[in-house]
């Protein structure tokens, strides 16, 4: 047993590191931040090349259980979490996304209430004004688009009716523009390099890397601590409050291992039920992604160029943006092992469409009660007919961009795809079902909602229903995944929760 803490935060990712750093600003509050992965920043100072989607050895190497085609499902396992290994994309969700949460019984998450926290978290070096911050921990930069491929992509988008947009974090309409990133001098700036870098010297903040939370401990209806495996030993950590910020996969697993979840199923697995919350592990959403790969003309990709620099928002119905189209440049063959031989040692370029709002839902569940057993992840990507149809529309848009004169003249060849595959509906449908992939943006598996909502796990203040002193603060709580990559939204969650928890001191 260890001495008691005021706050224990499980998971040092986008939300958890933000929350722990902000809570530790109260000098009298003892905060412990647990992370299953290593503290790489303390060891080597290190984010790698901006844009690489995963870094070896710093992820939970999960697989999906959908059908007969399991695919890798990687989420960050390092101090900084997925903010340390993602593409450093710093996009806000659209205002309507948050207003939708408010309309579902969570009025504290209306756009006008969350905007101040997006402002608080950032220092935007390119755009000023009341909707942008200039004193926050996270630097926001828009990467230069002045490359032949970037310029060609913008021209092709304009030909498809997508106008240039100066600030994608302010315009909730279709358009194309420079990608906002949380980066500085070509290096991603995750929560380890921003929030925790400023907080590490505080004597009241302790970070335990390589420490895995096994289960939550409780007394009646109150959480009392966490059972942790650290340095080959299992220790009990006592706390006044526990916040789970382990991410859209590991948060529901920890809750379920602790007896919080669908009681009947947990009992069958040998887990003693604590609180019956059927929504734990349900409602999993992700952004379905489909990319078409090409080989560019020799010399177009330069060493050190980032993967992402420009992105477009588009609307499958012509009105409401629900598609995002990325130009991915300078991708090394080893980073796409399934296509590497086709690239013949050359860097690859892809144009990829991501469906940003989805009807399809999956689940995350325990396979058994053992803490090291891999989860059962069922994504059900684009299984709903409307999702599939919209992804087909997005794929046609991608093909149109690649075939536009501005782009086509810079590409040596397209891999796998043909005009016929896109033109014929049955072939396109089959191709979408074959090539659709996850974005590794799991969300919704402990979603927020009022107590009368049978699928809700937390209330709008992120307190777990039926358990005093326990919160969830990460992408698990999102009722619907926002129409943006989720990193910046998760940092905002940490800021929002820290405000409430500090007031309740």
Short description:
By secondary structure, this protein is α/β, with parallel strands linked by helices.
List the helices and strands and how they pair.
Elements: E1 2-10, H1 14-23, E2 31-34, H2 40-44, E3 59-63, E4 72-76, H3 95-103, H4 111-121, E5 122-124, E6 138-142, H5 148-159, E7 175-178, E8 180-181, E9 183-184, E10 187-188, H6 195-199, E11 205-208, E12 211-219, E13 222-230, E14 233-244, H7 247-257, E15 260-261, H8 263-268, E16 275-276, E17 289-296, E18 308-314, E19 323-331, H9 340-343, E20 348-355, E21 363-365, E22 376-378, H10 385-403, H11 405-408, E23 411-414, H12 419-423, H13 425-435, E24 470-472, H14 487-503
Parallel strand pairs: 1-2, 1-14, 2-11, 5-6, 14-24, 15-16
Antiparallel strand pairs: 3-4, 6-8, 7-18, 9-10, 12-13, 13-14, 17-20, 17-23, 18-19, 19-20, 21-22
Helix pairs in contact: 1-14, 4-14, 10-13
What are the defining features of this structure?
FAD/NAD(P)-binding domain, Cholesterol Oxidase, domain 2, GMC_OxRdtase_N, FAD, 2 domains, GMC_OxRdtase, GMC family oxidoreductase, flavoprotein, 14 helices, 7-stranded mixed sheet, 505 residues
